[in-house]
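Kindly inspect what follows.
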Amino acid sequence: MILLASTSLQRTAILRQLGIPHEVVVPDYEEDDRHDADPVELVREHALGKARSVWTPGTLVLGVDTTVALDGRIYAKPADRADAAAMLGALEGRTHEVVSGLCLIGDGFEELHHDVTRVTFRALTPAQIDAYLDAQEWEGRAGAYAIQGRGAVVVERIEGDYLNVVGLPAALLVRLLAERLPGAYVLA
């Protein structure tokens, strides 16, 4: 059983989809999404902090953090509709990176990694952005969109792990589980 140090419904759904038994534990960790931080360092720091905040001997803990980055700027969760509109306006017609940090802690090991998926938005009109904002999917979403929902219509293409864009770098997790706990979780 993995302890998921996250309250993300998307991460829970991905683990369920992969057939990985888990229990959600609310991490005792305060995120600081500095817009000028290095995105890789930031998500790794958050994933590590979340995982360490719930780990105790004898447990296997997964901590994950995801952000969106473009031109050296981090687009974390928008504060409000205006912030979401500004984010979508900055991302439209361009390619950005979805960066996730992943930390897996168990007895005798602490794995800290990251994954990057490149996402290209199609060109959007202000009316299309407003229509998407009306759906309210932007709330609580890095980059102000949810690719697994209506946000799919703003995406032209992706390069990399689709599930990373949803919120969990699944290919990376599966590889780490196979290396650390052969036969225990995935495709035993």
Notes: Residues 2-180 form a domain with the Maf protein fold (CATH 3.90.950.10). The beta strands are 2-4, 22-24, 60-70, 73-75, 95-106, 109-121, 155-159. The first helix runs from residue 9 to 18. The chain is about 35% helix and 25% strand.
